[in-house]
Amino acid sequence: MDTEIELKLIVPENAGHIIEQQLLPKLDAQVEQHQANLYNQYFDTPEQALRQADIGMRVRGVNGRFEQTIKTAGKVVGGLHQRPEYNIPLQDNQPDLSLFPEHIWPENTDVSLLQQQIAPLFTTHFLRSSYKLTLTNGTQIELVFDQGEVLANGRKQAICEVELELLSGNAGDIFDVAEALMALCPCRLGQQSKAARGYMLAKGKELEGRELPRFLELTDNVDVETGLCQALETLLSQWLHQEACYLDSTHLKDLRRLNQALAMLEQTMQLYAPLLGAEVLQQCQQSLTLYRQRWHWLEGLLAIKGLRSKKGPYQKRLGKSPELLSYLHGRQQGILQQYQPEQILLTGDGGKVQLALSKLLWQKPWRELGDAWQAPLQREARECLKQRWQSVAAALPGQIPQSVSTYMSNEGLIRQALYEGFLLANVFSDKPDQFRAPWLDILDGIEELRMLQSLQLELPAAGIEDTNALMAWSQEKLQALWQVMEQSRNAALQQDVYW
Predict the structure, then answer these.
(1) What pTM was computed for the model?
(2) Is residue 373's pLDDT more than 60?
(3) Dihedrals φ, ψ of 48, to 5°?
(4) Which of 100, 273, 389, 496 is most buried, most CB within 10 Å of its CB?
């Protein structure tokens, strides 16, 4: 049994040329290289019993030689893949499950019955260019560039990726090689395996977006490091997932979730940098801030999308004006054409930040600065939440009416406080939902305010007949929404804290 430790990078089609002509000459390493056409057939039962047990099973053919492989449940930590695998030589391309060790199977598995039921599900076929790197410190890394396709049920998806696998030595050296490659061509971290993509094709489905959990999974006795690492793992995974979703489907809701993950990662750095005194966290925060600035137009785009949405809060009235909806559709397409989100995702700028975060998770550099990382998180969380919510209460005090502009200008502060609640709330035994509910309502109200303000900005240029009527209607809605938000604010300021 081997345990893979590898980093997967999604790369452009010309990556092979860049690796050979630019990367390898710059690396201080001995290089052994070879190429092979790999044909892989993946097997499962009709009910996908192996997949449900988080087992991947394939037979690989190379130059007339065959090998069957099972990969069991592993984990992806910040883009670094760690997964046990078992490899058995075969005489031909027919799998034989009885040859695998018995202990790898879930309890009460009938291996002989599985053998009767498994059948080919999908295939992957790609040219693999392999480079065994021996670094001066003795670390050995295999760099492979795979280019080909996944095939299932007449559908296909391209494969174009680099995998950096630790053969022996220091896993941290993988990041140095990845950084060198990222300096030469645009890359992003990959989270989905070839097998996972094959299963999606076999089902005829596209990758589906997902919402974050209500709160980060923590317990009341965790230390500061655990809180930070859990946040980085969860949010980086969400970033990678939503990025892949948008590139697969171009649904704007995936960009919204992606942007939320970026904002929460930025908040994570801001929260933990003072606790750990690690300059590298501040550097990551700065990188995240710079990258998020590339998405400055997204809020406006989502406001227009909200106005057009059939499930939006104002569809009943706006749906009566096809001319307006047509105009808003044009505006939405114009913004997408101007800023080209696919290109932002493919430039490699985000990939460099992803790699830096993944490196943080692996190296844990704050341990070299003292023992602050071992402090109880609950103690630190109580003080952080206290200070943050005091700032919110000071910005939006009770008994004093607050204007629409005040709510809009304090949106960032409210989000920061709620994001910190996401990161920290589970270390307390009291439930935070009652405290957070009115503030979440206010945040929803701010997003609706942005929609109405966006409508008022767009109406003069839309050139429709009922502009004046819609302007008056939107102002009435804005006023009514403001009143509801005032009620939520007064209720929010009366809640007992949960920390």
Answers:
(1) 0.91
(2) yes
(3) 55, 50
(4) 389
